[in-house]
């Protein structure tokens, strides 16, 4: 029986990594895993576009990497555990990278998380927020 992930589409800020997302992001995630070696990180940093063109990613995925748009990478099939290879290669902490996916700077995001996370009021449903 196939799970019904559609029920989660109404939750703001939620990207469910399904089999379809895994297929969509396969090359993106493979690229990310290539950054585990120093040789590949050096090649990537020397000419990012040239290195990205070695991978059969969509142009949108490549642009998301070039602009470090982590939310766009997630939306195009990137898995956060694989994407962490990009921000680690950039010397970014997880907090720094994830804060780019919010409307907060790093200090605001970190303070929110230390205080217990995002207030759930207004974040339970896209419909409640007028987004759907």
From TrEMBL:
Gene3D superfamilies given in the database record: Dioxygenase LigAB, LigA subunit
Name the UniProt record assigns to this protein: Unannotated protein
Domain Extradiol ring-cleavage dioxygenase LigAB LigA subunit stretches: 28-114
Residues in coiled coil: none
Organism the protein comes from: freshwater metagenome
InterPro entries per UniProt: LigA_sf, PCA_LigA, Xdiol_dOase_LigA
Pfam families documented for this protein: LigA
Taxonomic path: unclassified sequences, metagenomes, ecological metagenomes
């Amino acid at each position: 029986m196939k799970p019904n992930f559609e029920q989660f589409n109404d939750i703001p800020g939620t990207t469910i990594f399904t089999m379809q997302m895994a297929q969509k992001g396969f090359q993106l995630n493979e690229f990310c895993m290539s950054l585990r070696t120093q040789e590949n990180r050096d090649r990537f940093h020397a000419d990012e576009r040239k290195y990205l063109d070695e991978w059969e990613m969509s142009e949108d995925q490549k642009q998301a990497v070039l602009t470090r748009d982590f939310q766009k990478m997630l939306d195009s099939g990137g898995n956060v555990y694989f994407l962490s290879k990009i921000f680690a290669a950039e010397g970014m902490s997880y907090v720094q990278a994830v804060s780019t996916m919010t409307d907060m700077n790093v200090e605001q995001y970190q303070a929110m998380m230390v205080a217990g996370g995002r207030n759930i009021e207004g974040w339970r449903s896209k419909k409640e927020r007028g987004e759907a």
